Amino acid sequence: MGSFILGLSSDHIQPILADRGYSFETIEHIQNTFRVSFEAAARSVTELCDDPASVLFCSLIIDAINGNSFAIDKFVVAQSFPFYIYAKTWRLPFLCLRRATQSDMLIRTTESWQIDGTASYQCEFAAKRMFFYVNKMRVEGVIVVVTNPKVSDLLK
Question: What is the C-alpha separation between 138 and 18, in angstroms, rounded?
């Protein structure tokens, strides 16, 4: 327990973040180095990150009428992330999510994320099919690291 707490302190995470930058691979590196869960590593890195970034823990919604999409079960955001994310309210149609469910590899895409009918952000996504916990239940889903959100256009 002590190594867990010491390992995820800003004194240990900040140099790794400065050296490697914020990415899915950096989170996995911290997970493996300090032997913690992906979620614990994601929280520690994201909370210390100055860049606008987030980590989404998503599960598949099977919908015969509207087609399959993904819901955000939980998330972690950096303070500088430009918009608020609501868990369970998104129906994410992102290509990276669909591709990640069909592979064991890390999938990278750049896609638009439409926000509340007002703005569209061009974001970089890194997604991987993984297990995570929701309400003490282990579920298989897709974990997505979102970086570099930039307003791509405003709707009129």
Answer: 32
Among positive and negative, which fits the CA dihedral 94, 95, 101, 107?
negative
- Tens digit of each residue's pLDDT (9 = 90 or more) over 104-118: 999 999 999 988 777
Q: Which residues contact 63 (CB under 8 A, 6 or more apart)?
A: 69
- The CB-side HSE value for 104 (13 A sphere, CA atoms) comes to 0
Residue 93, C-beta contacts closer than 8 angstroms, at least 6 positions apart: 69, 70
pLDDT digits (tens, 9 = 90+) for 47-73: 999 999 999 999 888 765 666 778 899
Strand ranges, E, within the chain: 53-61, 69-77, 107-115, 119-134, 137-154
